[in-house]
Amino acid sequence: MAEAAYKHHGLHYRYINCEVSPENLEAAVNGVKAMGWKGFNCSLPHKVSIIKYLDELGESAQLIGAVNTVVNSGNKWIGENTDGKGFLQALKQVIDPTGKHATLFGAGGASRAVAIELALAGVKTITVVNRSRERGETVVDLINKNTEAKASYQPWIDGYAIEPHSDMVINLTSIGLYPNVDEQLNIDLDSIQSHMAVADCIPNPPQTHFLKTAKAKGCKTLDGLQMLVNQGVIGIKYWTGNDVDPTIMHAALKEALRIKE
Ligand code: NDP
Fold first, then answer.
1. pLDDT at residue 258, as a whole number
2. Is 47 a catalytic residue?
3. Residue 19 and residue 84: Cα distance in Å, rounded?
4. Separation of alpha carbons 36 and 20, rounded Å
5. Is residue 260 over pLDDT 80?
6. CA 11, 256, 219: angle at the middle one, nearest 5?
7. Which conformational region is residue 54 in: left (phi greater than 0), alpha (psi within -120 to 50 degrees), or beta?
8. Among positive and negative, which fits the CA dihedral 40, 43, 47, 49?
9. Which residue in 61, 86, 112, 244 could disulfide with 230, CB within 3.0 to 4.6 Å?
10. Ligand 1: distance of its center to the CA of 81 in Å?
11. Which one of the listed residues 33, 47, 76, 254 is annotated catalytic?
12. How far apart are CA 67 and CA 246, in angstroms?
């Protein structure tokens, strides 16, 4: 999707994929530095171990404790995290998060990133619903200790009912991800109300059971593909300074993932 944007805008860059094993990470980063790349993305298992090879971290990357985007600022290599930023940018097209209440399902890396960005964007209160109490409470503590937002944990009981005052409801679990497309959130579907903005981080398939149900109830919805595309847009802005057209990247991503809907 990055190369589609470069081609469309006539930008003289390349986006190449490299498989780097953990024992070669330092050598790979030194190679990038030696070759003067503008930056790179890194995925699991490098999101935390990359930090020791960088000079500085952006605010949210520091709070999240993980990096997925590295930027060559000229004299420094800076680690950023666009997981939550991409989501927030897409969310703002659907709802202004300032002063609102968000319910988050899940407490893994994606939840951590989204919770931090929501809190930094002015969300007032956050409920984290997660199967494992320990992981849920870790995200809650992170928010309460580092941001103005107030977060609390709720155990994920069978047929969990979403709090009616939720303005945003976001699935940040891996439930519904291909190939387990029939897997569903264990929630009371009647608790989804039309005033709620409903988002799902699952990029494939983008129209999950959760989103289809919310749409049928009249909710505004946001899918995981939009989150992923916006991460790409933000990364290209960091590296090249250019604002690229998300619709070009969206189309390229759908083609790559063979998504027809
Ligand atoms: P993690 O493995 O860190 O966390 C997974 C979370 O899902 C945990 O909270 C886990 O709960 C929960 N979970 C998994 N299965 C179930 C289940 N059957 N019932 C209840 N809870 C469940 O993953 P990530 O946070 O890194 O990623 C989560 C999803 O987000 C992935 O599907 C990934 O594809 C997507 N993602 C999308 C992005 C995008 O741009 N669209 C960006 C980043 C991620 P517990 O703690 O109890 O185990």
1. 87
2. yes
3. 24
4. 18
5. no
6. 100
7. beta
8. negative
9. 86
10. 17
11. 47
12. 22
Q: What is the CA radius of gyration of the chain?
A: 19
Confidence at residue 259, expressed as pLDDT on a 0 to 100 scale: 83
Domain boundaries along the sequence of the chain: 2-81+234-257, 85-222
Residue 166 has pLDDT above 80, yes or no: yes
Task: Respond yes or no on whether the N-terminal peptide bond of residue 179 is cis (omega within 30° of 0).
Answer: yes
The letter for the amino acid at 3 is E
The CATH number fitting domain 2-81+234-257, selected from 3.40.50.10860, 3.60.15.10, 3.20.20.70, 2.40.70.10: 3.40.50.10860
**Closest protein CA for atom 42 of ligand 1:** 83
Which of 155, 69, 149 shows the shortest CA–CA distance to 107?
155
Q: Measured on CA atoms in the order 246, 249, 255, 258, is the torsion positive or negative?
A: negative
Q: In CATH terms, are 2-81+234-257 and 85-222 the same topology? A: yes
**CA pair distance 127, 170, nearest whole angstrom:** 10
Q: Helix 133-146 vs helix 109-120: angle between axes, to the nearest 10 degrees?
A: 30
CATH code linked to domain 85-222: 3.40.50.720
In sequence order, the β-bridge partners of residue 234 are: none
pLDDT in tens, 168-218: 999 999 999 999 999 999 999 999 999 999 999 999 999 999 999 999 999
Nearest CA to ligand 1 atom 17: 175
Identify the three-state secondary structure at position 198: strand
Shortest-distance atom of ligand 1 to CA 83: 42
pLDDT at 196: 98
What is the CA(246)–ligand 1 centre distance, in A?
Answer: 25
